[in-house]
Amino acid sequence: MPDYLGIIHLFGTVGRYNIPWNCFQLNFIAFFCVFLDTILTSTRYFQILYFMIVDRFTFTLRFL
């Protein structure tokens, strides 16, 4: 189950700090993947995408 609060927190941090546009685009793609994940069945494919993109960027945002 994806961490939806983490995604909302991710958008909050993007707004709070001046993160480059490419980072925000990737965050939006991750958010869209989770949105698709709620519509479709919870497949392994979307979970892998979620962990690849979102966890990597929450990890980098912590050290800004």
TrEMBL record:
Keywords (A to Z) from UniProt: Membrane, Transmembrane, Transmembrane helix
Protein name per its UniProtKB record: Uncharacterized protein
Transmembrane regions: 28-53
Keyword flag Membrane: yes
Domain of life: Eukaryota
